[in-house]
């Protein structure tokens, strides 16, 4: 097993169990204790786990329960979301970046896929980015060709983003060519839903943009959050992955939403 697959397996076990032990990993992966310890050290440097004597645990930000009742799931910490459908999210982010042209103004919402979009924008010139996503802002800070505007407001640790009345005031009256919005859940009839209580700022973002683009992998299409964020008629485009069913694609398109599957 190569190093990439081995470390992915370690992270998968961590997400499922919360903790892992060196001895058990060595047996599971059919490798040495030294190799496992080196993998854990590398993953810790990337912020994906925390070492302890004889093993590792999820970072504190990621240690939160995930429950599912009547199709409603609790909000996951943003760091944990990077491990879910990672390849699909990166493809979605890359496709979204193709929509961004020079001299345009865009809004980037909170979320893991929107953060990956920010990473994909590194080589795009003369773009103004307005965001409440601190992970995205950190990625874009210092890139001379990008003008970065960050909202004020209240910091939410679980999503690494800014919300609240001050954030809404910041976005109110802003004009953008495109707003890139994430989603905890997406339905052709309900629109965008979220578990995040700070969803009002996303509603304000959507009102400020000429075009609203939702970035959501296909796993989000069968989920519903507690709060409705955007109605279907407020959405111009959905970028998702090839896991979307033909039935769901037809349902979204019947609502006038342009669907792009990557």
Automatic annotation (TrEMBL):
Stored PROSITE patterns: HTH_DEOR_1, HTH_DEOR_2
GO function terms (MF aspect): DNA binding; DNA-binding transcription factor activity
Highest taxon in the source lineage: Bacteria
Limits of the HTH deoR-type domain: 3-58
SUPFAM superfamilies: NagB/RpiA/CoA transferase-like, Winged helix' DNA-binding domain
InterPro entries: Carb_Metab_HTH_regulators (IPR050313), DeoR-like_C (IPR014036), DeoR_HTH (IPR001034), NagB/RpiA_transferase-like (IPR037171), Tscrpt_reg_HTH_DeoR_CS (IPR018356), WH-like_DNA-bd_sf (IPR036388), WH_DNA-bd_sf (IPR036390)
Key words of the record: DNA-binding, Transcription, Transcription regulation
Protein name, UniProt field: DeoR/GlpR family DNA-binding transcription regulator
Species this protein is from: Vibrio chaetopteri
Taxonomic path: Bacteria, Pseudomonadati, Pseudomonadota, Gammaproteobacteria, Vibrionales
């Amino acid at each position: 097993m190569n190093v990439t697959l081995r470390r992915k397996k370690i992270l998968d076990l961590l997400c499922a169990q919360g903790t892992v032990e060196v001895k058990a990993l060595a047996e599971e992966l059919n490798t040495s204790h030294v190799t496992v310890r080196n993998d854990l050290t590398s993953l810790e440097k990337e912020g994906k786990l925390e070492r302890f004597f004889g093993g590792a645990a999820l970072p504190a930000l990621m240690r939160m329960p995930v429950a599912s009742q009547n199709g409603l799931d609790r909000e996951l910490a943003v760091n944990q979301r990077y491990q879910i459908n990672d390849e699909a999210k990166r493809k979605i982010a890359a496709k979204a970046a193709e929509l961004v042209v020079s001299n345009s103004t865009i809004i980037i919402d909170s979320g893991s896929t929107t953060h990956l979009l920010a990473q994909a924008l590194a080589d795009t010139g003369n773009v103004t980015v307005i965001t409440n996503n601190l992970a995205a802002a950190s990625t874009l800070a210092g890139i001379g060709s990008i003008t970065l505007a960050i909202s004020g407001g209240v910091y939410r640790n679980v999503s690494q983003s800014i919300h609240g009345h001050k954030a809404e005031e910041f976005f109110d009256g802003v004009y953008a060519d495109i707003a890139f919005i994430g989603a905890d859940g997406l339905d052709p009839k309900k629109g965008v839903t979220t578990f995040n209580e700070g969803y009002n700022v996303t509603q304000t973002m959507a009102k400020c943009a000429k075009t609203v683009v939702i970035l959501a992998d296909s796993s989000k299409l069968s989920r519903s959050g507690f709060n409705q964020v955007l109605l279907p008629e407020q959405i111009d485009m959905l970028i998702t992955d090839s896991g979307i069913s033909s039935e769901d694609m037809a349902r979204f398109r019947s609502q006038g939403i342009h669907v792009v599957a990557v």
